Every structure is written in structure tokens, then in C-alpha cells.
From TrEMBL, chains A, B:
Pfam families: HrcA (PF01628), HTH_DeoR (PF08220). This is Heat-inducible transcription repressor HrcA. Residues 34-62 form the HTH deoR-type domain. Keywords: Repressor, Stress response, Transcription, Transcription regulation. The keyword Transferase does not apply. The keyword ATP-binding does not apply. One of its GO terms (molecular function) is DNA binding. It comes from the Bacteria.
Length: 338, 338
DNA sequence: CCTGGCACTCAGTGGTGGCGAGTGCCAAAG
DNA sequence: CTTTGGCACTCGCCACCACTGAGTGCCAGG
């Protein structure tokens, strides 16, 4: 087990390195932090920390930098979550208020998060599977052509065009609309399938085909559109990465363009509480030198989607975590109000 | 006026520089292109071209590179639009077919364009102002709360929540819905204001307030949502820029994140025909070392939106223009079919 | 007007040496 | 057993320098 002071040394190394972006040596450490011991002692501690794999030297005769394992320990045991300052909180509120629709909320959130953390922000749209139905609308566009519009409690709207096997009258359609809504409004998407399974039976023979088609499309929409959407922003912050960077930045940009990768990334995050994935803990290769801080957010007590930031492993974890958490809370609040 | 041969020399310089990314010298030129003259002659021509500002030397004793003005001349007079190969055309078709909705079409287009040109692709969503109304739907969510859903011929859906001054009955709402649709379906958005201006008059006194509110919101949606959306992709291609690049790439990424900038960029493009803006011709400072190739696309003969690519001024103009034009045509076709 | 020749310029390359931050080890002190 | 000062050593970084070669401008002759 590592002594208290060695942990303190590790913390100091992480803090310094995050600040300066340069390998930190024993002398500099004792100067900047009141460790109360001499450089030589620190050197011994460093040797021990290196032995355990928490820090490493880029090359002999250079200072030490934290390894992924070092950051992990730092995040788990040495760092808290830094709460935002009051002006920062106020800024968040001002920035998010005045959003007019869901797109706007997500867009503002992404910009806010990117600005606050000076990193790349990723915000997932509220997931269909976990939200509830606000309304289902059926529009007859042509005798045998119906448009299905699905509205969620988070303000998301999905529409599908349906070619019906047979024409359906306005009355039947209105009937179907009414029954459908009375059954599913306010219910969770996951419950919908059972709720509508027997609905076709109560219709006239001639309409059953169409009703089934409509219901099938509805269910399909629920499944298909579980394919989540998300928005990213702040990619320009990637340029602050390293000075070496074409090599560093390229795979990251590539990874960020693959929605699938990002969705998996957020999906891996715990449903509640904050998740921090550091460097190689990320499955995707392109993100091996980045860390992801993600958290769920929702209109109620339950998470309907996730948001987070992607940045260099060498990031200000307490600050980033604080910002991410704060933003998630406010967004949840906004969603609950609307 | 420049002699024919000098133009030929300029063309050769542009082609070589685009290929090698290195300043091109007189000797190399005569070797790679059958100009039929000696390096010394080419040198004289180069001196003349430099005098006129079409090319420049990064430093004494280096080859020449084209200036923005040089590229301009190249694009205007020396280069055609390179048509795509048959396999490329087929690839486009395969890639775009099978798109399920508007988001999907735009998403696929962006990826396709980025891949084809190996540059950053920008695709604007079909604009509301130039499209026509397919359907207007009114949903009563609560006694004094109505949702307005607007569906365009390009498949775009906009919705707005309306708080009514007074409750409105289902019958009146259905009446309004019917009249509204009979007046505006199939009409262009720009015509809608006149078409509905007197609609409130024909309603009962008690409903007039609500009807006016609904109409006002409808008009507002038309105006507000002229705030266009767009999608970008292929930012990872920016890493192919230069080797110098933190400095180059940063302002570009920043510019690309500002939708406003991009919209202005596309907006500046001519409505019909292809527009190429080279280097400093772009108003935005961050894009001073990039060129933009943009073109309108639409479901009919008229452009409903624009798409294009952003890349280094040193780009393969004929190839890029060919790809952009071809993609725009296919997308227009897809939109017309749906 | 074109061409070959010639002197000149200058970015890039590679080698050299000094500097200094940082290390590991050790022996002595606490 | 831990801490500390001392010391020799390593090695990345930088400044300096000379060399090379691609490319140029100019000029005199075809």
C-alpha cells in the first residue's frame, strides 16, 4: 500500500502536469507544493510510484507524467468534484433559459458545455425508449396514405409515411387516433407494444389491414428510432491538445464523426452517477489518449439520455466533472419545465 | 494579356502543386509536362506570371505556388468540371438510395460528399421558405393548448406549442384545420401570409382570439425557421491540410462550428450554377486559406437549398466540382421521388 | 523569342558541443 | 527505517556551422 505522502505526491504531479503540460520533476514539485520534504525524498517516492505504474518518464532525465492508472487513482481517491462558482452557475442558467425547442436545448447545451470545459462536448437527445408518449397523430394525406406523427414528453417529434393496403375512411382513422391516444398517452415507449397489441381486433374487417400496418409502423418507429441522435460541439478545442498533433487529433476527429462510436461511448457510462473513462479504458482505439466524462440527465429523477465531454487524458478532472454535473442538472430542470 | 503558353504554364503549376503540395520549379515543370520549351523559357514565363500576381515564391530560391488570383484564373478559364467515372456514379446512387427520411438523406449526403472529395462537406437542409406546404396539423393537447405541426414537401416537420387565449372546441379546431389546409396545401411558404390573412374573420367571436394566435404562430414559424439547419461532416479530412497546422486548422474548425457563418457562406453562393470562392474571397477570416465549392440543389428545377465542400485552396478543383455537382443532382432526384 | 550557361541565394540537413533539468545511488544524519 | 545532501551521469534541447542542391535571375548567342 502507498503511504499517505506518496498519494500526496501523485496528486501534486497530476495537478502540476495538468497545469503546465510538461513533465514534472522532483525539485519543481517541492517548490510548488508544501510537501515538507526534500527533493531527494520525493525522488524516492516517485521511484516507488513509477514501480507501481502510476507515473512514467517520457525519457530518462526528464520529469514524470501520470499514466492512465495514475489518473484513475487520482480520480477515484484523490480528487473531488469541484463545484462551480456562483457566476458560473448563473451563466449556465442564463444560457439555457430561452431555448425554444428540443433542438435548441440540445444545441445550447452542447455549446455551453464546450465553452465551460474548453473541450469537446457530446449531448445525446433524450432517448425515445425511456420517454413517454405525449401524443400520436394520424393524418390522411391521400386515400391510402397516412402520416404517423409521434410526439414525446421531451418534445421530440418523429414522423413516418405509411402506404396502406386499403383506403381508410376519415371516421375510422379518427376512431383509431382516439383509441390509440387514450391507450398510450403518458405511457412509456417500452410499454406501448403490449398496450396496442389487440387494438386491430376491434375494427371492421375492411380496416384491419390498414390498422395493423399503422400499428406495425408505430412499433417499428419505436424500435428503429431507438437509434439515438446526438450533437457534438467544441471540436476546435482539440487544437489545444498537444503540439505534436496531426497524429493525435486525426483519430479523435474520426471517432467523433462516427455516431455509433459516440453512442457506444455514452452507452457504456453508468445510468446514474458520473462515469469517467480514462485513456485506454475507452474501447475505441482513436480515443486511447482521451478521457470521457459522462453523466445521465433527465426530466425527472430518471435519466433519459446522457451527455459528456471528450478531452485529453491530461485534463482538469475535478473542474470538468463539476461542469458536466452542473450542466446535466440544469438541462434536466429545463426539460422538466417544458 | 497573357500568351497561350503562359496560361499553360500556370495550369501546369496548379496541377503539380495540387498533386505534390510542394512549390514547383521550372525544371520539374518541363519534365512532367510536355511544354516543348526549355526550363529557361519557363522561367521567363514564371517571372511574368509572378509579375501579374498569379503565382508567388514562398522564399527566394524556392519554386512557385499559385496565389488565390492564380487559382481563380485556373478555375475560370483553364479547368473544366471533371465528370465522375461510371463506378463513382453508381456508388453515389447506391449510397443515397435506401435513405428513410430527410435526416437520413442529408446525413448520407454529407458522408458521401466528404468521402468523395476527401474534404469537409456541408449540406443545408431544404429551406422552408422555398418549399411548399404538404400539411398543417393542429392537435389539442389540453383545453387551451394546441400543437401546430407543419409538414413540408421535402419531408421536413416543424412543431410549435401554442398557449391559446381561450379554450377552443374540437369542432372549431377541426374546422380551422380543414380550412387552413384547403388554402395552403401545395402552396409555397412565401405565399402563405396572404392566403390566411382573412381566415380569422370567418370564425365565431369567441374563437377569433385563438385562431389569430394560431395563425400568428404559423407565420412566425415560417419566418423563424427560415433560420436554416445544416449538417457538416468529414472534419477529419482537415488533418490532411498542411504540416504546419495547429494554426491553420483551428480557425477553420471554429468557423465550421458557427452555423451562422456557414449559412452565410452557402447563402453567398449563386442560386444556380456552381460557385467557387477561393481563399480571401471568403468573407470570414478563418476561412482565408480555404476554398468553398457550393451549388444549389432541389427536388425540381429550382434550388431549395445548397450543399458544398470546404477545403484547402490547394484542392483539386475540377474533381471537387465534378463530385459536388453530381451529388447535388442525385440528391435532387431523391428528393423529387420521395 | 528561345536557349544554354553561369553565378548567386537560401531552405534544409546533419554534425558538434555546451547547457541544464532531472535522475539514481550512496553514505551520513535523524 | 526514513530522510537528506551530495555527486556523477544521462540525455533532450539549442545554438552554431558548413554543406548541399534546387531553384532563380541575368546575359549573350542562336
Amino acid at each position: 500500500m502507498l503511504s499517505e505522502r506518496r498519494l500526496e505526491v501523485l496528486r501534486a504531479i497530476v495537478q502540476d502536469y495538468v497545469g503546465t503540460e510538461e513533465p514534472v520533476g522532483s525539485k519543481a514539485l517541492t517548490e510548488r507544493h508544501r510537501l515538507g520534504v526534500s527533493p531527494a525524498t520525493v525522488r524516492n517516492d516517485m521511484a516507488a510510484l513509477e514501480e507501481e505504474g502510476f507515473i512514467a518518464q517520457p525519457h530518462t532525465s526528464a520529469g514524470r507524467i501520470p499514466t492512465d492508472k495514475g489518473y484513475r487513482l487520482f480520480v477515484d481517491r484523490l480528487a473531488g468534484v469541484k463545484p462551480l462558482s456562483t457566476p458560473e452557475r448563473r451563466a449556465i442558467q442564463n444560457f439555457l433559459d430561452g431555448a425554444v425547442d428540443l433542438d435548441d436545448v440540445v444545441g445550447r447545451t452542447v455549446r455551453l458545455l464546450a465553452q465551460l470545459t474548453r473541450q469537446v462536448a457530446v449531448v445525446q437527445y433524450p432517448s425515445l425508449t425511456r420517454s413517454t408518449v405525449r401524443h400520436v397523430e394520424l393524418l390522411s394525406l391521400a386515400p391510402a396514405r397516412v402520416m404517423l406523427v409521434l410526439i414525446t414528453d421531451t418534445g421530440r417529434v418523429e414522423q413516418r409515411m405509411i402506404d396502406c393496403p386499403a383506403p381508410i375512411g376519415e371516421t375510422s382513422l379518427a376512431d383509431l387516433r382516439a383509441r390509440l391516444n387514450s391507450r398510450v398517452v403518458g405511457r412509456r415507449f417500452t410499454d406501448v407494444p403490449q398496450l396496442v397489441s389487440d387494438l386491430a381486433d376491434s375494427f371492421e374487417q375492411e380496416d384491419r389491414g390498414t390498422v395493423s400496418t399503422v400499428l406495425a409502423t408505430l412499433l417499428e418507429t419505436l424500435v428503429e428510432e431507438t437509434e439515438e441522435r446526438l450533437m457534438i460541439g467544441g471540436t476546435a478545442n482539440l487544437t489545444r491538445f498537444g503540439h505534436d498533433f496531426p497524429l493525435t487529433i486525426r483519430p479523435v476527429l474520426e471517432a467523433l464523426e462516427e455516431q455509433v462510436v459516440l453512442l457506444k461511448l455514452l452507452g457504456e457510462a453508468k445510468d446514474s452517477g458520473m462515469t469517467v473513462r480514462i485513456g485506454h479504458e475507452n474501447a475505441h482505439e482513436g480515443l486511447n489518449s482521451t478521457s470521457v466524462v459522462a453523466v445521465g440527465y433527465g426530466s425527472g429523477d430518471e435519466a433519459v439520455a446522457k451527455l459528456g465531454v471528450v478531452g485529453p487524458t491530461r485534463m482538469d478532472y475535478p473542474g470538468t466533472m463539476g461542469a458536466v454535473r452542473a450542466v446535466a442538472r440544469y438541462v434536466g430542470q429545463i426539460l422538466a419545465e417544458s
